[in-house]
Amino acid sequence: MYNILFIKALILFSLLLFASISDIRTHEVSNIYSILIGLTALIGISLEQLPGMFLSAAIITIPMFGIALFKPSGIGGADIKLTAACAFFLGLQKGLVFIMLRLLLAVLCNLVFKKIFKDQYKESFALVPFLSVGCMIAYLL
Question: 33 lies in which domain range?
Answer without folding.
Answer: 2-140
